[in-house]
From TrEMBL:
Transmembrane segments: none
Name of the protein: Sulfotransferase domain-containing protein
Keywords for this protein: Transferase
Pfam annotation, one family: Sulfotransfer_1
UniProt organism field: Larinioides sclopetarius
Similarity comment text for this entry: Belongs to the sulfotransferase 1 family.
Amino acid sequence: MLSLKLLYNSPLSTLVKGWRKKRKKGDAVTPALEDSTLENDPLRKEYTQSIPEAQLYRGVLLQGYLVPPDVLEGLDDMEIRDDDVFVITYPKSGTTWTEEIVSLIYKGGDVRKVEKELLVYRVHHLEVGRPFGHLRFLRKLKSPRLMATHLPLPLIPKQLKQSKCKIIYVMRNPKDTAVSYYHHHKMSTFLGNTTDTWDKFFEHFKAGHLVYGSWFDHVLPYWEFCKENPNNVFFLTYEELKMDLRGMVSRLCDFLERPLCPQAVDTIVRHCTFESMKTNKMVNREVLPITDLFDMSKSKFMRKGIIGDWKNYFTEEQSEAFNRLCESRMSQSDLQLVFEPEDADNLFKSFGRIIHNHPERIEIELAQEATEDDEESNPKYYEPWSRPLQAFFQVYLQSDPLTLYANG
């Protein structure tokens, strides 16, 4: 068992942090506080100073603890295998949930095989890991390798953009993501255990100051990447997992070319409900090889798991301001965002997906479905983009936030 205090606040830290003295000018990874542009943005500077050992890699702010610079600089040349599987997310978007599902799919749905093995030993993080020899460790893993990353598209290995391997990208609506990331900052030692108020954190999230950057700069490029590579990239949403866990597990089995019998799928679904995972010590981060990554007295790693918790934090003014930001940043994108229960319900009734234009729905399938539709007995296809864009981001003012889709 190791501790961050031992690694970064003891004589041992000279080995871990020695790169800061040895880096040469022009290297890709630099201490974030050496960024001269911080002086022009006091709010960004304040956030950067709150992240221990914060580093900057090709313009993206990253945590300093357990993200070795030599790993980041070695990713471009990392060899990717055709049978690799990557789960990619912006932080707090359903990463752990999807990792557990994928891990169980590769275990044939046999939960006995994961009852005594931590998730971190089954799905390995690409950029976060051992202070020494992390890339070598990843190279030696047996196939198929299951891996995860929060890195934006421009920072992932070059071969990963060209490989035949499978990539699963998970998106969560940005308002709920912001709230979850706020609590994650409070509990995470590597994020500084922030004492900032929600109002201050909201300003950082809206401005894209956070570790791993802007939500929009992360999600939108991966959506385009998915459309360009429909056979290798599967784009799903946290909300879809909440509303139809069994259906999404089945879709993931198909995408990964790992067919399972209905009984095995049912077992995965029961094992991967939020309430089940919240108490599962192999998943909920209460047991880890590093002891002080999280302060569980500030918040639990798996906190609520509901859709719509943002309504308990966003003021009306904040919600309206963020809606305007969504309209501006997403005006040229056909990616679906769902904040309202009726929009989510209509999309699911019409398409079985929130991402109704997901590349898996190829043109011939759409044509066949249109021919088979009986307008008298089936609901008309819901077209959210047929109404003004701003309507898609209207604030839902009812007091009960999407509890229709909360685990019960």
